[in-house]
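Q: Joint fold for the lines below.
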Amino acid sequence: MQQNSSSEPIVSLRNVQKSFGPLRVLDGVSFAVERGEVLALIGRSGSGKSTALRCIDRFEKVDGGEIVVCGHRVDRPDVDLRALRQDVGIVFQSYNLFPHLTIEQNITLAPCAVKGMATAQARDLARKVLAQVGLEEKLHAYPEQLSGGQQQRAAIARSLAMQPKVMLFDEVTSALDPELTAEVLKVIEQLAADGMTMVMVTHEMGFAKGIADRIVFMHRGKVHETGPASILTSPTTPELTQFVGTGNLKS
Amino acid sequence: MGGHLNINHLMFLGQGALWTIGLSVIALIGGGIVGFIIALARISPLKSVRLASATYVQLVQGTPLLVILFLGYFGLAAIGLKVSPLTAASASLTLYVAAYLGEIWRGCIQSVPKPQWEAAEGLALSRTQRMIKVILPQAIRIATPPTVGFMVQIIKNTSLASVVGFVELMRSGQIVNNSLFEPFAIYAIIAVTYFAMCYPLSLFSQRLERRMGRGRSNLAPA
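A: Joint structure:
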């Protein structure tokens, strides 16, 4: 698996193991994400997809295997977490905007505190990233004044302001109704079109089909089937067939 | 002395009341500073620090304030340190208040939803930055009502400082009574004075709690 540096994947997991107590959540998971690629992690609840995603940003420590993200050896105990997290943006299901700060302050906080950016410059940046998600007018609003979809878009903007090399999306539309889901997915689609490298855990099969360059279907802690988006329409394993079947019923 | 309650007695009681307030303020400030350190130590990533601070809290919470006051006054004297009643009372109350405030505030810090920590972590903020810019501002809002409520306890507990000879409201009442022998009247005045100091704080605390209840949605991870 030796590769030259120009085609080195942005994210690569090799034989990753992770247990919560006696429960083996990741059992030898391997996949890689190339620059500019959009990878969708799908699977049932409890299949390990969210854990795999959280391992990439070191929110979970792995028990074994190797994870390399933008050159950081995430599996090693001495990994520079702050450097890693400047390269990786993560967006959560529950938005997690800071309720005591305005949207602008939410966005400028990290660039100022972490990168030492000047306030004026950070404010310009906030306007720019908010425009990207279509929320310029919410600059001075507080999170509670926004709808769920708007909060999630603001959270995406907050992540973008750190100019990450890869974005992780952890079921970012699961808490939203269909209409709000659509506005968030539109933003993510635009990011993909702009060439952002992304890993997303999603239950939106139609969306995964439309946007993902590659699908990783996880089942019982293992990568059960992987391939281009077309595997969703013509799955080769009975598990994925069944999963896609139930997924279609939902949407 | 002897005789009837007069303006001089009332002045003396008033002075005692001022010292009660003074001692309360000292205990609150001292206990607040030490308590804040205790709260941070209780959630430290270092196990030894967590253990040491937890032991401190348990020791103080398991000891009557009266005993702590005696230890502070007579204990320090026994090892050769001559301390004034004010110093002994201030130090004892500071240690006492620190244990309780530390525990109250630890709870408040930990009640900020965990995803808030993760979001801050995901943005590459350092532990100190996460604490100062994200967690504490939210924790302070949660902590205000119980902290104001606890201040009522502090004011009432300063009365125990009378046992080490510190002349606050309670002790000044005892002194006046020793000359007048009108315990019911004098202790009634003292009770009313304590009530007048504590009741506004209680009211304030209740009002804060109601306001927090309304704004609770602000603190949920949405």
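Q: Anything notable?
A: Chain A has one domain: 11-246. Chain A touches chain B at residues 57, 59, 81-83, 85-86, 88-90, 92, 94-100, 109-110, 113-114, 143-144, 148, 151, 155, 158-159, 162 (CB under 8 Å).
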